[in-house]
Amino acid sequence: MTPPRSSAARIDVRNLTMAYGSRVVMQEMNFQIHRGEVFVIMGGSGCGKSTLMKHLIGLLEPAEGAILYDNVNFTTADEDERHAMRRSFGVLYQAGALWGSMTLAENIALPLEQYTSLSRRDIREVASFKLALVGLNGFEDFYPAEISGGMRKRAALARAMALDPDILFFDEPSAGLDPISSARLDDLIVQLRDSLGATIVIVTHELASIFAIGDRCVYLDVESKRITAEGHPRELAESSDDEKVREFLNRQAETPADHQPS
Amino acid sequence: MSSRSASASTSPTVVAKNPKSGVRILHFGGRWTVETMPEIDLLALIPEKGLLRLEAGEAEAVDTSLAMTVTRLMEATDGTGVKVDLSGLPVSVSNLVLLARAVPEQDVPKPETTSFITEAGKKAMALWTSLEVALSFFGESFLALGRTLRHPKTFRLREFLVLLGDCGFRALPIVSLLAFLTGLILAFVGAIQLRVFGADVYVADLVGLAMSREMAALMTSMIMSGRSGAAFAAHLGTMKVSEEIDALSTFGFKPVDMLALPRLLALTLMMPLLTLYANLMGYLGGAVIGYSMLDISYSQYLFETQTIVTTRDISIGLVKSAVFGFIIAACGCVQGIHCGQDAAAVGHATTRAVVLSITLIVVADAVFAVICEVLKI
Asked: For the segment B297-335, what is each residue's pLDDT rounded down to a tens digit?
């Protein structure tokens, strides 16, 4: 069931199989992510969502299949080509993964120092601007350990945007955030997409986020180790052929409490 | 009031009744709690077929233990054709039983049972893999040095200076203490022997040569592997766990360039300086013993040391110490970068870094001894 190839796909995942050693995590995955869309990778805990993201950004190698960016094969590319392709990625890790030995401004400045020829003062200004975008102006000289979890996540988002990427990857953006912070992060993600025209890939199982911002999603099924649904989250919630996907999106579970003793 | 001293009516009981053929009623009475789990062979009470009705009307206290007992009974009746009726049980108990039995059957991956030979093979393969990792790190670190020399802008000077301080002057107090004591001990042991022959003044020779050629470098490297090697492994391991190293990679930074190279350079540069300092502290320790036990004046001790210790002896110690410094930093960085994904893995990485570096240092020292012997230096 190979979907039709479209040249508009920003990311094209072809027949991807992921495995740790001989243990297959997910197999024969095929999907495409289009430019400017908010694409959600969802599934139950431990189904391999984060693993899939690590494959997409090249931290893990596929056991089989390939990942293409703008029809250029990322999987078979050599280190230099990958390096060039990665420059258009921004990644937000689950816990932020800010570099603890640097201040927030330095965290953002590091990639800028590496890849641009801006002067020290300009870099500082760009860093302040990016922090302002996520509502953290004034926190330039704080260390990651000195700010709250939600702020750390936003600062990490600012760092992910340091090089004006056109694909942003989010690993469980709302994990560990209170509902208000996580809603604010969702808003921020949509604003970024609208103002930067970036493609957004989100790994999450937060239903509120999925429905609020997801344009399209895939469901990774842990039992069959395959993608069992693809489409708009609301449509899937109402009319997916797969019962498990509907249950997931409607937050239902067959609990034993339903079976009252007769 | 203790439940143990309570009368027989509060200890758990099971009464079996057969009101009519094909029906057996098990009535649970008394206190069914985890503390008072009875040792009754319930399985013997299961009929061969028909209806098994469970009741627990008068139980004074019921917790998991009754639910566990009932679940065990039901498991025993599975597939025997006995029908179990739970309606006589309190709702809380029957719900717990249903909940426990509702867990879907999953194909739980069975832990692989392997033979001794398979295990031995796996261990050998793991050893080989770790050797490959170490070798590729060794090569990678030289490539990193080359890359950094070509693009000096990428080198993070400020972080390097902090590392120099950590591996350098912040270690001075502990190096002072241990080197001083090492000199003291060497002199003390030597003094007892040499005094017998009236060769007291040769204590200075003994301490001078031993410190310069061997002990200063060895003691300093032991301190530094416990201090800096462990710190490198723990720091990089924690960075790995919190995905900071992944974050570096996705920005196209090489962890070896960014993290390992500054540490390798810092420790390789600082170890000879610390060793030189340790030499002086060792001589001082020897001189103190010479003065207090053997009545050798400080100037006499210094003169004797100067006549016997040559620049070559000191240089050998310094060259060794630079190599040891590289070994310590490399072990710490490799273990840290290749650390697992949880807190325990950071601990393992740190342990491995220290054990591995001390082992390699002693091996390297033995190699140096052979080289020096062959070259007659």
From this structure: 999 999 999 999 999 999 999 999 999 999 999 999 999
> Which chain B residues are within 8 Å of A111, Cβ to Cβ?
251
Distance from CA of B102 to the nearest CA of A (A): 6
Q: Which residue among B153, B243, B250 sits closest to A95, beta carbon to beta carbon?
A: B243
Q: What is the pLDDT of residues A81-110, one digit of tens each?
A: 888 888 888 899 888 889 988 899 999 998
Q: Give residue ranges of A with CB < 8 Å to any B CB.
A: 54, 57-59, 83, 86-87, 89, 91, 93-95, 97-101, 110-111, 113-115, 159, 163, 255-257, 259, 261-262
Q: What is the ipTM of this complex?
A: 0.80
* Confidence label for B152 from pLDDT (cuts 50, 70 and 90): confident
CA of A141: how far to CAs of A124, A134, A160, A164, A169, in Å?
A: 11, 15, 18, 22, 26
Domains recognised in chain B with CATH numbers: 8-102 (3.30.750.24), 138-375 (no CATH)
- Integer-rounded Cα Rg, in Å, for chain B is 36
What is the CA angle A92-A97-A102, rounded to 5?
Answer: 120
Tell me which chain A residues have a C-beta less than 8 angstroms from the C-beta of B253: 110, 114
- Beta-strand relationship, A167-171 and A216-221: unpaired
Checking DSSP bridges between strand A38-43 and strand A199-203, what pairing results, if any? parallel
Place of tokens 């953002």: A108
Nearest to B45 by CA among B11, B79, B72, B10: B72
Distance from CA of B217 to the nearest CA of A (A): 31
pLDDT tens-place string over residues B208-227:
999 999 999 999 999 999 99
Task: Show me where the domains of chain A are located.
Answer: 98-164
- Which chain A residues have a beta carbon less than 8 Å from that of B118? none
